[in-house]
TrEMBL record:
Organism of provenance: Monodon monoceros (Narwhal)
Domain named Methyltransferase: residues: 98-363
Gene3D superfamilies, alphabetized: Vaccinia Virus protein VP39
Gene from which the chain derives: METTL25
Name of the protein this chain belongs to: Methyltransferase like 25
Region annotation (Disordered) ranges: 71-92, 272-296
């Protein structure tokens, strides 16, 4: 199916540059907050150096803003929780609810884009455990190559796909039985309705003198009856014969519904007059046929390869053809490299990339005095930010991963654990003379019963002699900083509020890079996921010009 409709209008490069310019002006003042690390909060006197306001003032302002955002988000979550309940196949046998939400939204988008471009082959970079790849192949009948750098992930994906195909086959078989049952039930109900109607007609003839009153009561009865049972069944049957992308509305919680699993002509309507005929596109017909056979042929191939911007796909995929490249939460530099591969390979006609782990991005201007042979960096990508020689820094990029929407609905930051770590750093500096340490404390807080226990376990993990510190000295540090805990809380809330600004900068950089390419017909930044369920919710989408 070739592209047949106009694409949505998006902002041009000059408009995006203006937005970048305004964002850079703001971040010039605010970046110092995002760049500060909470570990050094007390040792470096961060609050006094960067903010220097009463923490109560900052917290009051931020909490009032958070409360204004929380109510609609909580309402949305409640509605989704209620609508998500029911007798559907539970997705958590194969993936958690967060992943199923991501797979449902992204696969629907990719299915539409592949149909729009007339493409059958998908390349899933950083495919991990193969959730998205498996679903695209089984649900949409697409030929998917899932490429991951980990052999463990590749083998796991193969086994997981085998199990999923087995379950898929079972549910297809069950769905056909359900359809037969529906057809039989519908026939029985129609027979009852005909008998009632026939009886009403006879009574109408025999009682012509009082026809008006009798017909009114009988008609009311028939209307209520057909509206309660037969109409519901007929609607379900009609849904099986009406196939459009919007009606497919892929939701993994409902992924095994009858409508989604039935191939073309799985059932015959008992009466064509009751089912409206709609024209089905050739692309959708072909996909439905492929879907019906997808459990019989393996059209998902997990592969192991480390992907860079210079990777040659023909060496990895022998039957490479016109394809669509995707990446769901590709880590660090893999997200920008996905876009670079897309722009450099003529076979790739479209891309949908959702990145994550911004702190693992390589930055060209982070260490300007350090000699480096690297030519292609994770950030920046576009000419505008390269000319500005803009640098975020690792701490700011890490803060970009904070989830503002989750905090707004009450999923707050672990303030006490952050407080423990900041005080520990001051202890290490004063008592051991260490300002920088290569080792990480890790998740000691969840295993500790108190601050004292936390310090003891942390020092042991860091390889420091904890016996030289008596309990009194450790608790003195705790008592010293306990009254200033609200400073750390306010500071971390400021970092959360600024997180979307850093993320927006990174995403706009990638979008501008695509806008700079001559052969890109359309590109956009799309909010693909619910940010409460999946904080890294934005997708970069682009399509090339048709030759």
């Amino acid at each position: 199916m070739a592209a047949s409709g106009p694409l949505p209008v998006t902002q041009d490069l000059s408009t995006l540059h203006a937005k970048l310019q305004g964002l850079l002006r703001f971040l010039t003042e605010a970046l110092s907050i995002s760049s500060a690390h909470t570990v050094d909060f007390y040792t470096e006197s961060v609050w006094e150096q960067v903010v220097d306001l009463p923490p109560e003032t900052v917290l009051a302002a931020l909490r009032s803003a958070a409360e204004a955002e929380a109510q609609p988000s909580e309402a949305r979550l409640q509605v989704e929780a209620e609508s998500g309940s029911g007798e559907n196949v539970k997705p958590d046998e194969f993936m958690n609810l967060k992943k199923s939400h991501e797979v449902q939204a992204m696969s629907e988008l990719i299915g539409s884009a592949a149909d729009y471009c007339g493409i059958k082959q998908i390349i899933d970079l950083g495919s991990g455990k193969g959730y998205l790849s498996s679903f695209l192949s089984l649900k949409y009948g697409l030929k998917v190559y899932g490429i991951d750098s980990s052999n463990t992930n590749t083998h796991g994906a193969e086994e997981r796909n085998r199990k999923l195909k087995k379950h898929w086959k079972v549910y297809r078989r069950r769905s056909k039985l359900d359809v037969n049952g529906l057809a039989l039930q519908m026939t029985k109900e129609r027979k009852v309705q005909d008998e009632i109607k026939f009886k009403a007609d006879i009574e109408g003839v025999c009682n012509s003198s009082t026809a008006n009153q009798e017909k009114m009561s009988t008609s009311d009865f028939l209307q209520d009856f057909s509206g309660s049972v037969i109409s519901n069944i007929r609607k379900q049957m009609e849904n099986l014969h009406v196939y459009s992308h919007r009606e497919e509305n892929l939701c993994f919680e409902n992924a095994f519904s009858l409508r989604d699993l039935l191939p073309i002509n799985a059932i015959e309507p008992t009466s064509s007059s009751h089912i409206p005929k709609r024209k089905m596109s050739e692309g959708n017909k072909e996909r439905r046929k492929m879907t019906s056979k997808s459990n019989e042929s393996n059209i998902y191939s997990p592969l192991t390869s480390f992907i860079t911007a210079d990777s040659e796909l023909h060496d990895i995929i022998k039957d490479l053809e016109d394809c669509f490249m995707v990446g769901l939460h590709t880590c660090g530099d893999l997200a920008p490299n996905t876009l670079r591969i897309f722009t450099s390979k003529s076979e790739i006609k479209g891309v949908c990339s959702v990145g994550c782990c911004y702190h693992l991005l390589s930055e060209e201007f982070e260490n300007p005095h350090k000699e480096c042979t690297q030519e292609k960096w994770g950030f920046p990508m576009c000419h505008y930010l390269k000319e500005e020689r803009w640098c975020c820094g690792r701490n700011a990029r890490m803060s970009a991963c904070l989830a503002l929407e989750r905090v707004a609905v009450g999923q707050g930051l672990p303030t006490e654990s952050l407080f423990y770590r900041a005080v520990l750093q001051d202890i290490i500096k004063d008592c051991y003379g260490i300002t920088k340490c290569d080792r990480h404390v890790g998740k000691i807080y969840s295993k500790s019963s108190s601050f004292l226990d936390y310090v003891r376990k942390s020092l042991k993990k860091l390889g420091l002699d904890e016996s030289k510190l008596p309990e009194r000295i450790i608790m003195d540090y705790y008592e010293k900083y306990k009254p200033r805990m609200n400073e750390l809380e306010a500071f971390n809330m400021l970092k959360v509020v600024l997180a979307p600004c850093i993320e927006t900068l990174i995403l706009l950089d990638r979008l501008c890079y695509l806008k700079e390419q001559d052969d890109i017909a359309w590109s956009a930044l799309v909010k693909l996921f619910d940010p409460v369920k999946s904080p890294r919710c934005y997708a970069i989408i682009a399509l090339k010009k048709q030759q």
